[in-house]
Design a protein that fits this description.
It is a single chain. This protein is α+β, with helices and mostly antiparallel strands. It has one domain. 59% of the residues lie in helices and 16% in strands. The protein has a two-stranded antiparallel sheet with strand order 1-2. β1 and β2 form a beta hairpin. The termini are far apart. 0% of the residues are buried.
């Protein structure tokens, strides 16, 4: 009987450890994507009108073209 309880407790710990690992892994991936996007946003804000930013990573290509506003002003 105690062996069964120990086995169940061990199995429970393994399941909890695996769930925790998956949660940490997915959270880390989300944070890395967020940091990459933040870096891209900062670079885009620094570009003058008429610039083109192209980023390639992991089979993806992001192309951003900065255009001048119509009318040439804010008013």
């Amino acid at each position: 009987m105690p062996e069964t309880a120990i086995g169940c407790a061990g199995l429970g710990l393994l399941v909890v450890a695996q769930l925790l690992y998956r949660w940490i892994s997915s959270r880390t991936q989300v944070q890395l994507v967020r940091l990459r996007q933040q870096g891209t946003s900062e670079r885009v804000r620094a570009l003058p009108a008429g610039s083109v930013l192209t980023e390639r990573r992991a089979g993806e290509e992001l192309r951003i073209e900065m255009g001048a506003s119509e009318g040439g002003g804010h008013g």
